[in-house]
Amino acid sequence: GGMAEIFKAKTAGAEGFEKDIVIKRILPHFTEDEAFVKMFIDEATITSKLQHSNIVQIFDFDVSEGSYYIAMEYIEGVDLKKVIDDGVKGGKPLSVAQCVWVTMEIAKGLHYAHVKDHKGKPLNIVHRDISPHNVMLSYNAEVKLMDFGIAKAAQRSTKTMAGTVKGKVAYMSPEQARGKPLDGRSDLFALAIMLWEMLTHKRLFLGDSDFETLTAVLKSEAPPPSSINPDVPPDLDAIVLKALEKDRDKRHPTVEAFNRDLTRWYYSNVTDLDKEALKPYMQELFAADIAELHSLTAEEKNLPRPGGGGASHYAPEPQQQADRTVALPVDYDPQQAATLLDDGSISQAQIRQALAKQTASSGQFKAAPVGTGTYNQQAFTGTYNGEVPEKKGKGWLIAIIAILVLAGGGVAAYFALGDKGTTTGNNGATTAPSGDNGSTGEKPEETAELVIKVDPPETVVKVNGAPKEGKATGLKVGDKVSVEASAPGYEPFEDLVEVTKASQPLEIVLKKKVEQVSLVIEAVGDEKAIIKVNGKVLGLSPQSFKGNKDESYEVEVTPSAGGDPVKRTVKLDGATPVFKVEVAGPATEVKLVVKLDPPGSTVTVTKGTVSYSADSSQAIIGGLALDDSITVNATKAGYEDESKAVKVTSDGQEVSLELKKKSAGGGATTSPGTSPGTAPAPGGKGTAQINAKPWAQVTVDGKPYGTTPRSIELPAGKHTIKLCKSADCTTKVVTISSGKTSTVTHDFSN
What we know:
- The chain is built from 14 helices and 41 strands.
- By secondary structure, it is of the alpha+beta class.
- It folds into seven domains: 4-73, Phosphorylase Kinase, domain 1; 77-285, Transferase(Phosphotransferase) domain 1 (Transferase(Phosphotransferase), domain 1, Orthogonal Bundle), CATH 1.10.510; 336-341 and 350-357 and 367-429, no CATH class; 447-509, Immunoglobulin-like, CATH 2.60.40; 516-582, Immunoglobulin-like; 589-658, PapC, C-terminal domain (Immunoglobulin-like, Sandwich), CATH 2.60.40; 685-747, Immunoglobulin-like (Sandwich), CATH 2.60.40.
């Protein structure tokens, strides 16, 4: 946030031991900010108690020469924001599976923080600042959560004032945006935003201003990721959207529960784990950065080790040179000053001394200490000695600023310019102190009020949590205030209102409450079918939802095997607690056993595969499904052919075929009263045996029959059969003969 600086450092020990770490230090001019210092201490205190592979570790916290610092784990990598942005820009965004895996890893560390206790007492940590900027991904695919600087915890030294909003606006939960008490479900909401954005390559809640963004968060309208990225499957939509529910009671109860759903999805859908591995992706995407890092690492070997050693050109400058005063004239060229620093004509310490000697003398300039940095691999340090000689003018300042900017990372400078006591604040805005007459010289802030009208009259209105009747005064133009309104029998109202003029009307009309009715929707025949209501994914069957009594809702159930969804309309009358929708579930393969007399008979079937027992006394028909209707034919030399129509009702079902010997004259042996070759009676029924590769939804004469394979009994005559695999459809016309079986097949894989 611009209030601390980061250094890469090493710890050294016996026998050449060393370890890379990161030093995070408060910028010198913030050390007097008591609130920020306490927040910095809280970050160290909270994070030091968290020891988890998915959380950046804290090694030490201390104060040196008045500056507080944290020593923490060094991650050789980048933050998640850069991974997302570089992947999209390079045309190689994270895959759906990789997005889920990264989220799973973050969730592990986050849940650990939520449930962590210390000395038997729960810490009750809520991070409050979950965002891509606060997640590190190493080049070796380690995922680390960091920056607990504004985390809520039971053992904070500073307590957050009720109603205070902290965190990045675009990743806040609705309750966080309203300043409500928070629990782990607020972090869950932020984590789901991150997953949504990784999947869609778009920002979810982003307006032209913080106010517009905050308003979008409060509305919490998130479209299914699959509506933007078709690679996202509907069952993943359901998991993400549940975590993004506006009402936190409708979200997953914990981050762990969310992670369980993601883990179940990941290992049910990802068949090639190596292909989705993150390490090769990171190594390819950041190949140039890794090569540069290796180069810098090689250069680091020349740096001096603590206690001496190292390359000679890093040795400290002689004391007499460091103490020599350097005067920089008013018209000094900044580039020339930088060159002098580079070629060794002047030292950083001399530049610093010049800065000290030309600042406070006129009361017009002020400089804070500068940290340690590098310029062309030349180490430098500086200390402010506080000398105040008489010297005016600003030309020298340009040269100093140029040198400091060229000096690179780790340098923090603060300047105040202007007339008497004029200062520049942290955000760059300039303010002037009051003159002798107490006037600031600025236009006073304009006061404002909200003139409130309500319907119904008994409505109670609160502005920023305080009850108001008729008017809300004491406001200022530009304020953004929280407005809540409620009345018995009416829906509550909540909104953020921006005050744009001195007397601003605000009319609130509450909607009458509608009785809510619960309904359970169950997909009969397919327990993994996906359920939607009015286009919103609820999840896998069964699902319950609440709606307005006596209103109608569109229910859509998509089979787990794919194909066209089954659509129904249901009216919530309160009398039907469960609404069942018949769905053709995935077929379960069963076998049919045919006993043969005599053994050795040859068997053919209208569907399935045929194999024989060792003694050829049985034929085993495989590749069948329950409720299939097939015809089994058996032949053997010297015997009359025998056929039998069979409906499969169980796995291992047994039927018998007994062939009759041919008569001496070679004719068929027939039953009394029956003539050989008699045609079936006209107007009877036959069977259509329907199959498709890999599968299809079946419609016969406009009536749906579910998913293939199907055996359907139909009246004799012509019938139109439509087979659809998602949007790919084909139509076939078949003629059904009475007592016969006709086969219809189609291959969608070609």
